[in-house]
Write a structure and sequence with these properties.
Blueprint (H helix, E strand, L loop, with lengths): L2 H13 L20 H17 L4 H11 L8 E6 L5 H13 L3 E7 L2 H10 L13 E5 L11 E7 L7 H14 E10 L3 H14 L3 H13 L3 H10 L7 E6 L3 E7 L1
Parallel strand pairs: 1-2, 1-4, 2-3, 4-5
Antiparallel strand pairs: 5-7, 6-7
Length: about 260
C-alpha cells in the first residue's frame, strides 16, 4: 500500500464519523490527474464493487416504481449523471429490455476518461449517438447541461459524495427543475464500521489501488439521513416530497417521484 494511502486513511479514522468531511479536505485518488489506463482499470474494479455490494438494486427498484405509473412517458428518457464506466446504465438498459419499456438513455460525466471508457466497455459510437445499446455517452458539466429533449428521470450513483455540500444542494435543485417524472440519488451512508470493512475487503479482492484508498475516504465524505434532510430543505424540497432510504451495504438513497 502506498504511503499516502496510509496517511489519508489514518486521518479519516482520527477525524471520526459524526460529521461529514468535505471533499476539498479529504481528496480521493480518483479525482486527481492520472493516466487513462489507470483510470479505466479503476472503473473496471468499481463495477466489480458495485456487483459485489448489489449497488444496482436500489436504482432498479426505483425504476420499477416509475414503471408502475399509468402515464409512463414513451419513450422514457433517463439521464445518469456522473455515469462513470457506464455499468449502471447498462443495468438500466437490461431492466428496460426485461420490462419491455422503450427508453432513451444518456450518460453524462465531467471526466472525458469516463466517456471514453464507457464506450469501450459497451457498444461504442464515436459521435455520441445511441449505439445498439441505446445509450448515448456525453462529456459535460451537469450544471451547464441543457438537453434538447425532455428529461423524465435523473439518476446518479456514487456521485454526491464527490460534491461539496453546497453543490449537493445545487444538484438537487437542478434535478427538481429538470426531471419531469422523478429523480434518484444512490450513494453511500457514512459509517465507521463500513470504512473498517472497506480497508480489508479490497485487499482480499485485489481491487485497484484507487478503490482501496478511496473506499474508506468516500465513506467519510458520505452522508447520513439528517444531512440529507438539511440539504433537501436548503434546496426548497418540501418535507415528505422526497424520501431518504437506507439500504444494505451502507447505501443511502434519496428518491423523488412526482
Amino acid at each position: 500500500m502506498l504511503p499516502e494511502v496510509d496517511r489519508t486513511n489514518r486521518s479519516a479514522a482520527a477525524a471520526g464519523f459524526a460529521e461529514r468531511v468535505e471533499p476539498a479536505d479529504l481528496p480521493e485518488l480518483m479525482d486527481e490527474p492520472c493516466a487513462y489506463e489507470e483510470f479505466r482499470a479503476c472503473l473496471q474494479d468499481l463495477a466489480k464493487v458495485n456487483r459485489f455490494t448489489r449497488a444496482y438494486k436500489p436504482t432498479i427498484d426505483f425504476l420499477d416504481r416509475v414503471a408502475a405509473r399509468k402515464d409512463l412517458p414513451q419513450p422514457l428518457r433517463i439521464l445518469d449523471v456522473a455515469s462513470g464506466g457506464g455499468d449502471m446504465l447498462r443495468q438500466v438498459a437490461e431492466w428496460a429490455e426485461r420490462r419491455g419499456i422503450a427508453v432513451e438513455l444518456t450518460g453524462l460525466d465531467l471526466n472525458p476518461y469516463s466517456t471514453r471508457a464507457a464506450r469501450e466497455f459497451g457498444v461504442r459510437d464515436p459521435e455520441d449517438k445511441p449505439g445498439a445499446s441505446g445509450i448515448r455517452w456525453i462529456t459535460g458539466d451537469v450544471f451547464a447541461y441543457v438537453s434538447a429533449e425532455r428529461i423524465d428521470v435523473v439518476l446518479s450513483a456514487l456521485f454526491t459524495h464527490h460534491l461539496s455540500s453546497a453543490d449537493v444542494v445545487r444538484f438537487v435543485a437542478w434535478m427538481e427543475k429538470n426531471a419531469r417524472v422523478g429523480w434518484f440519488v444512490n450513494d453511500l451512508q457514512r459509517s465507521a464500521r463500513a470504512a473498517r470493512w472497506f480497508r480489508v475487503l479490497p485487499v482480499i479482492m485485489r481491487w485497484h489501488r484507487f478503490v482501496r484508498h478511496d473506499g474508506p475516504v468516500s465513506l467519510r465524505r458520505a452522508f447520513r439521513e439528517n444531512d440529507w434532510r438539511r440539504m433537501l430543505a436548503a434546496a426548497n424540497i418540501p418535507v415528505g416530497v422526497a424520501t431518504v432510504e437506507s439500504h444494505a451495504m451502507s447505501r443511502l438513497c434519496v428518491a423523488r417521484l412526482r
